[in-house]
Design brief:
Layout lengths: L5 E9 L7 H19 L4 E2 L6 E8 L2 E6 L22 H11 L7 E3 L6 H10 L21 H12 L9 E5 L2 H13 L6 E5 L12 E5 L9 H18 L3 E7 L14 E7 L2 E9 L5 H5 L1
Parallel strand pairs: 1-2, 1-3, 5-6, 5-8, 6-7, 8-9
Antiparallel strand pairs: 3-4, 9-11, 10-11
């Protein structure tokens, strides 16, 4: 930046040394302004609405980090989600869940509680090698004085040249017609309407897409349902998995880990993940016809 640039300071302060985060932010702002005034006799302007440069100030106890914000709009906001429900999954979390599940992009994948379609879209982006930032319209670094537009264009072309056309079956459903409409809108915006199919259906009525495949779902959390409704829901999920999804690997994310016992199956793997500030369990199940012993035999 230079004295003609506008800037802002975004503070995150967790320290007993400061009563108010605005004070250290003001110190940083004045220091930057004074530097340029001493160098050129002019000071850059401060803009809180649309600055050229955003500077992040992070203070933890007595440790201070000052950094340039190269994205400004958080990177998890891919840019394809124009529609969303009441409790949407963070896009980066959805992609991480798919990777943790062991899905490699070749076997069918279903999300039978798909909501606005985030898991489905992230799965096909992985399978088709679509760069996760492809749908973003803005990165903070494009306003920096040393931004090399030609280099950025070349890098984008190189990454988009890696995109493939996957034939992997990725399907979704949801009991809510409104949620399915939202998913369809987001799928269209991501340019994946030909490779993801969604329908209105109750989970208990859905069948597996094929013999071997993956099921990744995000059931309603306890904040959205009463405790007895949650217990019934998870019992139904367990029963449906046993009867309709033998041969599949099923993965479930939930903040109500105590309700997983209602599924009646023992997870083969479990991970602790965070959906925002909400601590969740991501549990994986291998589903068999009959018992595990019979399946092994």
């Amino acid at each position: 930046m230079d004295h003609d640039s506008s800037f802002s300071v975004a503070p995150v302060v967790r320290s007993e040394l400061f009563d108010h985060s605005g004070y250290p932010a003001l110190v940083v702002k004045d220091a930057i302004a004074d530097y340029f005034r001493g160098k050129s006799g002019k000071r850059p302007s401060v803009s809180t609405s649309d600055p050229d440069v955003v500077i992040n100030l992070h203070i933890s106890n007595d440790h201070v980090d000052i950094s340039l914000d190269s994205s400004v709009i958080p990177l998890y906001k891919r840019g394809y989600r124009s529609e969303q429900g009441l409790a949407p999954l963070n896009e980066v979390l959805a992609a991480g869940m798919i990777m943790l599940s062991g899905w490699d992009g070749t076997l069918p994948l279903q999300d039978t509680m798909c909501g606005s379609g985030t898991i489905l879209i992230e799965a096909q982006m992985i399978a088709n090698k679509i760069p996760p930032g492809k749908f973003r319209n803005f990165f903070g670094f494009t306003r920096w004085k040393d931004f090399d537009e030609n280099l950025f264009i070349r890098m984008k072309k190189e990454s988009e040249a890696q995109i493939v056309k996957s034939g992997t079956l990725v399907t979704g459903s949801d009991i809510s017609e409104a949620a399915v409409r939202q998913a369809e809108a987001n799928i269209r915006k991501a340019g994946l309407e030909g490779v993801i199919s969604v329908e209105v259906a109750d989970f208990k009525d859905v069948k597996r897409a094929s013999g071997d495949g993956y099921l990744v779902i995000n059931p309603p959390y306890g904040q959205r349902l009463k405790p007895d409704e949650i217990e019934n829901l998870y019992s139904m999920i367990g029963s449906t998995l046993k009867h309709h999804f033998a041969g599949n690997k099923a993965w479930i994310i939930t903040s109500g880990k105590e309700y997983l016992r209602n599924i009646g199956l023992k997870p083969k793997k479990k991970f602790t993940l965070f959906n925002g500030a909400l601590e969740c369990v991501f549990a994986g199940y291998e589903l068999y016809e009959g018992t595990k012993k019979q399946a092994s035999a």
